[in-house]
């Protein structure tokens, strides 16, 4: 757990005092990722660097697992905080192995132990140990270097990680891959992570909580869905963007909104039965046909059922697409637009139909949060929030 | 033809003088490295001190070598070494300070701040940072300073023959005093050749001392 208590930094510059961080108070629960988000120059990096004392706080305190860190020796403290800097900062004179074992070697681990650890770390970041350990950073691609930077920070298994735009220096495709890998790793490692980003999409994807900064002040500190549903003021709202409702689609899984009630027909049913069910369930234009294993095999259109007689097995069309329970709503919405459908059958891990998701359910979900926050949300939309207001 | 004949006739002496010359410059620049590198590192901590030290070192280089020897004769006579080996080594030691201190200072100061921050961030002490990161990264530039010092002082050492330090300069000084162009030219050519050969050898050494991962960076620097 990381707790910041009125953490403040004032830089004395030739042009006068600059308050880079202004009474920042917040808490990151153990095992969670907190994203510090905001426009350039708003004090994210300064706040992060006060935690490992690369920047000395002007006032305020940092607690880690309840312990006031100002009592700890600086080097001791830093060796227990994994640190990933934006510029990656691998030591060019050291091999990959020397780079990722830098902290264990500082801590005086014996050779066997840190060599073993180096291999473990390479497995963790999905790079081949035999191919890479003896190479030098300049021989690696940007994405590979970035992974090594993360491995170096993880080397001594610190409970807390500080990451300053760790995936900033790579192209979008590789960035998405590394983000996914990192999230997978985090599911097992459960580190407490403070993570600086200026990219709202990255923040929503990676964060359990997001802290929005503006001009050195913490403006809002909320889980991503709350943030998108209820931005505290006009600044946050404009920072999140006008498509913030769509961004929320990333955060919700089909499982949360799917209805397990779905009308279906079998191949041996008559078209008359199909029409009956379509009307019974109130479907607009079609009904799903499944086989004995409950797998989706076709679609019977209402127009066909109404004008033709015979069996479903002779008059179906192929199923345009299905979604799985773990897909996010963004994918579902995209498919609905692409196939011009207002509903989609959902299948479980074995490919059996287990329900459906409708456009109505999606819009209702997004809308209900807005309605709730508009009627009970904070009254002052423009005033500066007090530090206590930022502690949700 | 006559020159080559002369050089061949005196090959033994020429070799002895060359070795003497290398030894003098080697000892002096070696000592200069042992003092200049720590000074260069130390002054990175204080910009004003750095300016003062570099200023003094550049003043020293502007003193003509003959004048420097002249100044040292009365001073070193007190301990009985007014001429010969000692003043020659001291002169070269002094002249070497500028390239060595300046290159060390520049190299350490130019270490990428991101690397310095990474080193601090993972919990290295100041000494650990110097030994594990900053000095290894600075080595190519420090070595370039040493090379400059060596090449510069192979020339200076030729003049030290006048105060009886020996070396290849003795051919030149005798050539002048005996109006013997053969000695003069053989001495001068030998000094130039020595400077070129030593420069290339040190360049090879510099490449070997450069940490492997930095070879690319070092060749573009
Ligand atoms: N070492 C420093 N000296 C003076 N001002 C600084 C220093 N570091 C940061 N600042 C100033 O503090 C403010 C916040 O900077 P920073 O924390 O780097 O922002 P961010 O990481 O959000 O882009 C900026 O106005 C910046 O110019
Ligand atoms: Mg920053």
TrEMBL record, chain A:
Per UniProt, subcellular location reads as:
Cell inner membrane
Q: Residue spans with biased composition (Polar residues)?
A: 371-392
Membrane topology label = Peripheral membrane protein
The transmembrane segments are: none
Which residue ranges are recorded for the region named Disordered? 368-392
User: What is the name attached to this protein's record?
Assistant: Quaternary amine transport ATP-binding protein
Catalysed reaction equations from the record: a quaternary ammonium(out) + ATP + H2O = a quaternary ammonium(in) + ADP + phosphate + H(+)
Query: PROSITE patterns, alphabetically?
Result: ABC_TRANSPORTER_1, ABC_TRANSPORTER_2, CBS
Highest taxon listed in the record's lineage: Bacteria
Q: Report one GO cellular component.
A: plasma membrane
Organism of this sequence:
Modicisalibacter ilicicola DSM 19980
Keywords for this protein: ATP-binding, CBS domain, Cell inner membrane, Cell membrane, Membrane, Nucleotide-binding, Repeat, Transport
Q: Where is the ABC transporter domain?
A: 2-240
Q: Which GO terms describe its molecular function?
A: ABC-type quaternary ammonium compound transporting activity; ATP binding; ATP hydrolysis activity
EC number, as in UniProt: 7.6.2.9
Protein's GO biological process: amino acid transport; glycine betaine transport
Q: Does the keyword Cell wall biogenesis/degradation apply?
A: no
Task: Name the protein family.
Answer: Belongs to the ABC transporter superfamily.
- Give the residue range of the signal peptide: none
Identify the Gene3D superfamilies for this entry. CBS-domain, P-loop containing nucleotide triphosphate hydrolases
Query: Chief subcellular site?
Result: membrane
Q: How does it assemble?
A: The complex is probably composed of two ATP-binding proteins, two transmembrane proteins and a solute-binding protein.
Q: Where is the CBS domain?
A: 316-373
The UniProt entry, under Pfam families, shows:
ABC_tran, CBS
Automatic annotation (TrEMBL), chain B:
- Membrane topology (UniProt): Multi-pass membrane protein
Q: Which residues form the signal peptide?
A: none
Residues of the ABC transmembrane type-1 domain:
18-204
What biological-process GO terms show up in the record? glycine betaine transport; transmembrane transport
Entry keywords, A to Z: Membrane, Transmembrane, Transmembrane helix, Transport
**Cellular location(s):** Cell membrane
- Residues annotated as transmembrane: 22-43, 52-72, 78-95, 137-164, 184-205
Query: InterPro entries in the record, alphabetically?
Result: ABC_transp_perm/SBD, MetI-like, MetI-like_sf
Extract one GO cellular component term from the record.
plasma membrane
Q: Which Gene3D superfamilies match?
A: MetI-like
Q: What family does the database annotate?
A: Belongs to the binding-protein-dependent transport system permease family.
Q: What name has this protein been given in UniProt?
A: Osmoprotectant transport system permease protein
From what organism does this protein derive? Modicisalibacter ilicicola DSM 19980
